[in-house]
Amino acid sequence: MRKTLVIAAREYNAAVRTKAFIVSLILLPVMMSGSVFVQVLTKKYGADIQERKVAIVDRTPGQQLFDVLQASVEKRNARDIIDPETQRQVEPKFTLIKVEPSAPDPESVNRQRYELSEQMRKKEIFAALELGSEILSASTQPATITSPASSGALEPAIVRYMSNSPTYPNVRQWAQTAIAQATTQRKIEELGNKREVAQTLQRQTQVLAKPLAIQDAGGQITYEKERNQIVNLVLPVALIFLMFVIVLVGSSPMTMNVMEEKQQRIAEVLLGSVRPFELMMGKLLGGAGVALTLMVIYFAGAIWAARKYGYAQYIDLNALLWFAVFSVIAVFLYGAMFVAVGAAVSNAREAQSLITPIMVLVILPMMVLQQLLQSPSGTIATIFSFFPPSAPMAMMARLTIPPGIPLWQPITSLVLLVITTILIVWCAGRIFRVGILMQGQGAKLGEMMRWVVRG
Predict the structure, then answer these.
(1) Residue 215: beta bridge partners?
(2) Torsions phi, psi of 138, nearest 5?
């Protein structure tokens, strides 16, 4: 029993006195709380505060609601967009633009919606609200089934919301609150009976997201396919987490594989037949093969499920191709780092302190996920999509969030990522060549840098 306690004490002291333990002790809670911290930090100092212009088509009798909404937005701009601690602007300013309603016939309605949609595509306005003519009426029932988007019919009991950035929720949320308050007050003034007031207040005016209008070659105005708001949010999140899993499964085991071969002298036998760089590239190609296998399995399952449950129209083959390209490059990028760590260390304890910073880079895009979803064209999202360690996940999120991004951005990001990956693989090859045959004490970061420079 005494010997067991002595061994236990020795193992405990050896573990807690290592740099790996100290690094893990500090970085683990930082990694767990890092997402919340980064979200708060980017909201305060890196928020997308570009002005949002909102067109208002008020079809209520006498256009009664525009002035109410104008007062509400002025109050919001004065009170809610400035952080009280830093006095920095953290939310965009909303500017309302009054648009005279068209005639109520379907052709005029369609034409006006198309003109507003074109302004959104050109980024002249951010969104448009079309206020139904009956939303102030106390007798109006809430609309649960609306007319097809392609009909061009007016929907008097709802507020129609259109935007080319459907994942940005703030404009719609503000409109829902402001319109609900205004319509509730008008209904209270109209009704005198308390029972009728209570029943009426249970029915809130709905602000429903609708697709933008388009015009075909023959001049006929139709509407884009209905966008499922859940799909708009779930798809980029799902792809980010899927790429995270692919990187972990395809890259992270390389550290242990190289380290075990080094400890068991298998690497020495292999190096009798191949050069160090060829050995390392073989491991990277194997990891890329694992990643591709995972992608095929997951994509096949996702396509089957989408077709079975009626979501096949949301499958974008172009996005899947981009995902495959970025995933393979990410496996090479991070796999080279993990291979270099495995060659430079002698045991798992030493590897832990070097793997942790790499894992921080892997989860970096998840820390700014909210910014990616709400402002895919904002400063934070753009920076992260061109910063090579976070580029694969960040760029994939931006590619799948409507209305998308210019083609030059993913191409430029891909070029930068390929150049960086080639550089990392080259550096890892020089570290691997020296470290794979070293035994005993593992290399420190400074020593690994000298291996890169001197070979």
Answers:
(1) 221
(2) -70, -20
Mean pLDDT by 10 residues, the chain (455 residues): 47 51 52 54 64 89 86 88 79 89 87 90 89 72 47 73 84 86 72 53 65 77 69 78 82 78 68 73 78 78 78 75 88 85 77 81 82 81 89 88 85 92 83 72 72 73
For the chain, which residues make up each domain, given as ranges?
38-44+230-454, 54-227
Q: How far is residue 408's CA from residue 180's CA, in Å, rounded to a whole number?
A: 42
Distance of CA 80 to the CA centre of its chain: 25
Half-sphere exposure of 344 (CA within 13 A, CB side): 27
Q: Which phi and psi (to 5°) does residue 33 adopt?
A: -95, -5
Please tell us whether the domain made up of 54-227 is placed in CATH 1.10.10: no
| Cα distances (Å, whole numbers) of residue 175 to 61, 128, 130, 209, 230 | 19, 11, 11, 12, 20
pTM: 0.68
Describe the strand order of the beta sheet including 94-99 as a list of residue ranges: 94-99, 52-58, 127-131, 158-163, 206-209
